[in-house]
């Protein structure tokens, strides 16, 4: 819990550094919010069930659909752009045999109402700020960046119907996760011609914007956006963190433009975080579309990375005072001393049972108490208590009223 709090505190402080406001959504949503037909893993693993009112509900697997629903609900009552962040528990239903977690916490930051890539550049900047705060550098982690408009351009040239776009992206996202022949088979089953499949896989292997320009031509929107993003990155000062990689599409069907994912350069771990632009998500829920982009950052892979790099912080419990009485009829005195210190904002662990001093010293060491305050009858008669500074061993008597 200490490690989780430390991680979330950093998520929160970075979000606030970027002027984002915290928001939260119900963990239990209508199942319909997550039913998409693009063959995503997130759909296959939906933690869904029928509730006692016979409603089909689901534990949310991600936060973005809830955000979309809320933006629609808020409608004109909120002024754009919206810059919202959330840290929320998300669920999936996997067979326990896989030994993987069914719940994790995800940090999300989203910008709603900004159509240009300045929004994506800002989001990537915020994640890099987070990495730097916890000691991760650009030699540990990088971002692969691309745009789904590259895919869209190719599919358009092979007159693949728009409604197959999300499904093709989900298939492409499985590159390097399943054999290439299975990818080709799935693309063909999505009615792509042999030629389209080959051209698609060709384009996806492109690793430089110049090469991409050779393939697609300079005027293509995908290219101008990516160039703008990379030039903004240079102004932010994070160029060494990002690289173009056309094979990055991300596995969520609703992305429509720039997509990015944080990866560990040693290649041992799954993607650390990921996100992108989703300009047409709101209309899938019956709302008016608004330009939108955001990312999700789970709490699992980042901890594995910190362990790999020896960067998990030492987080021991801290308390300023431990207060005890030397006999049971002075317990009330101990409570009075604790109350006085707490009124002054001092943290106190009050010993609640009549314990020998040896026990108290052991507990003081375990909870890292800085000061031991002993309520003993001789001192109490004089309205005083005995104080022991545990680091130095120094001890003295002091009037209760002078304690601080
Ligand atoms: O990364 C996808 C995901 C979603 C919900 C819960 C867990 Br654990 N993992």
TrEMBL record:
List the InterPro entries hit by this protein, alphabetically: aa-tRNA-synth_II (IPR006195), aa-tRNA-synth_II/BPL/LPL (IPR045864), Anticodon-bd (IPR004154), Anticodon-bd_dom_sf (IPR036621), His-tRNA-ligase (IPR015807), HisRS-like_core (IPR041715), HisRS/HisZ (IPR004516)
One Pfam family, short name: tRNA-synt_His
Protein name (record): histidine--tRNA ligase
What chemistry does it catalyse, as a reaction equation?
Answer: tRNA(His) + L-histidine + ATP = L-histidyl-tRNA(His) + AMP + diphosphate + H(+)
Q: Name one GO biological process term.
A: histidyl-tRNA aminoacylation
GO CC annotation terms, alphabetical: cytoplasm
Task: Report the family membership.
Answer: Belongs to the class-II aminoacyl-tRNA synthetase family.
**Species in which this protein is naturally found:** Buddleja alternifolia
Q: Which UniProt keywords apply?
A: Aminoacyl-tRNA synthetase, ATP-binding, Coiled coil, Ligase, Nucleotide-binding, Protein biosynthesis
Query: SUPFAM superfamilies from the xrefs?
Result: Class II aaRS ABD-related (SSF52954), Class II aaRS and biotin synthetases (SSF55681)
